[in-house]
Write a structure and sequence with these properties.
alpha+beta; Phosphatase 2c, domain 1; 418 residues; 9 helices; rod-shaped; five-stranded antiparallel beta sheet; single chain; Jelly Rolls
Length: 418
């Protein structure tokens, strides 16, 4: 027991040799192997422990039945002091980590100390009080830390709630814009003598910037348009609706695609910002002659399939974006579609589609697919509708991209002369 005097002095303070002699008579020295439970949370026990040598862990059960480590105690530290002062359950579990030499003072021993040497009991109580003060200081510091963490968590929660509300409002705005877009884009095309039309359009997000239409101008003239508005948000959907309305208005009384584009350009410049512009392929079909007069205002080059020669031609007249620069440059061109010919219009989302490795679908792949599919059908004397060709292109893109997320809208509009 004499080897423990330094530790006892640290706990109890200055005592006389007679006091320590009394303590030596009544205190119990024990050695416990690792993984020994000295105190069990929730159990009523009556022993105060002083660690002479070794390590113990102090843990508490959580609501999910896991254990939280509160502290690791070592030489000269104590625990279980409340057992001397009140008949209450242990607030934590203490378990030896290493072999531990302990000085153990039970409630009964404490009563003996009070009777035989009050100064020892008082010293012991001072040590207990000091330990409690230290524990309280730690508890207060922990509470301050927890309070700070809770305050931070509350601020984070408020910020998260605000962001959630913002996202909900944005989602609602997108839903409204999507509804507006669906109401604007045609679900069917007019019956036109000598022609078939089919379309596939898929926005990359809830609201896309692509639009298309086939509409009647007069009994003999029909308009065909595929366009791509900059942006992919509800602003793009609104801008798309404005451009479409302006285009239809300008097309009502004008049979020159170039003049329609110039008038549209001036109107768009008045209503758009520098960030908003549109690429357009606009054609006017004369059903009496099967002629196609068109302009390409910065849009992707349409593909014309000649069934007689089984060849492809890229329609490539020069042209700038509508609504971007002050001076619009477009050149009007004319082609004739014979029965069996196809016109494939598309947005850049088709050629920019990517697979899971980031490889682009590309224009060459699109040309190869169209040419092989239509050539094989012609050689087999198989009828391919406009819808058949749209389905073939769409399916091939899907097979290529697999599960890859696409960054741009995909629109395919096929016209067939029959």
């Amino acid at each position: 027991m004499s080897d423990s005097l330094d530790i006892l002095q640290t706990i109890l303070g200055e005592l006389t040799s007679e006091d320590y002699s009394v303590l030596e008579d009544v205190a119990v020295a024990k050695t416990h192997p690792p993984e020994t439970v000295l105190c069990e949370e929730g159990e009523v026990e009556h022993t105060f422990y002083i660690i002479e040598k070794g390590l113990v862990s102090v843990t508490r059960r959580m609501t999910d039945n896991t254990e939280q480590v509160l502290a690791i105690l070592n030489n000269g530290q104590s625990f279980g002091e409340m057992a001397l002062l009140e008949n209450s359950a242990r607030s934590a579990t203490v378990r030896t980590i290493t072999e531990c030499k302990m000085i153990e003072i039970s409630e009964d021993i404490f009563r003996v100390l009070v009777q035989r040497s009050p100064s020892v009991a008082i010293g012991l109580l001072r040590g207990v009080s000091r330990a409690l003060r230290d524990a309280n200081s730690i508890t207060l510091a922990e509470m301050e830390l927890k309070n700070y963490e809770l305050q931070t968590a509350l601020e984070d929660l408020k910020a998260a709630q605000a962001e959630l509300l913002r996202q909900e409002r944005l989602k609602r705005d997108l839903e409204i814009a999507s509804d507006v877009q669906r109401s604007i884009l045609p679900t069917s095309f007019p019956e036109v003598d000598g022609f078939e039309f089919a379309v596939c359009s898929r926005p990359a997000r809830e609201v896309g910037g692509d639009f298309y239409d086939v509409f009647k101008i007069t009994d003999y003239y029909y308009g065909l348009v595929v366009a791509d508005v900059s942006g992919k948000s509800w602003q793009a959907a609104l801008f798309m609706a404005i451009v479409r309305a302006l285009l239809l208005r300008e097309a009502e009384n004008e049979l020159s695609p170039a003049k329609v584009m110039h008038r549209l350009h001036q109107q768009v410049l008045k209503t758009s910002t520098a960030e908003m512009y549109v690429t357009i392929f606009y054609a006017i079909i004369d059903i009496r002659t099967n002629s196609l007069r068109y302009v390409r205002a910065g849009h992707e080059k349409p593909i014309l399939y000649d069934s007689a020669t089984q060849t492809l031609q890229l329609i490539n007249p020069p042209g700038r974006f509508v609504g971007l620069w002050a001076n619009l440059i477009v050149e009007e061109s004319v082609s004739t579609m014979k029965p069996g010919d196809y016109l494939i219009c598309y947005s850049d989302g088709v050629t920019d589609a990517e697979d899971t490795d980031g490889n682009r679908f590309g224009l060459e792949r699109l040309l190869d697919i169209v040419l092989e599919y239509l050539r094989n059908a012609d050689r087999a004397n198989e009828y391919i509708s406009a819808d058949n060709l749209v389905t073939e292109i769409r399916t091939t893109i899907d097979d290529f991209s697999k599960e890859a997320t696409q960054a741009d809208d995909i629109t395919i509009l096929v016209t067939k002369a029959v």
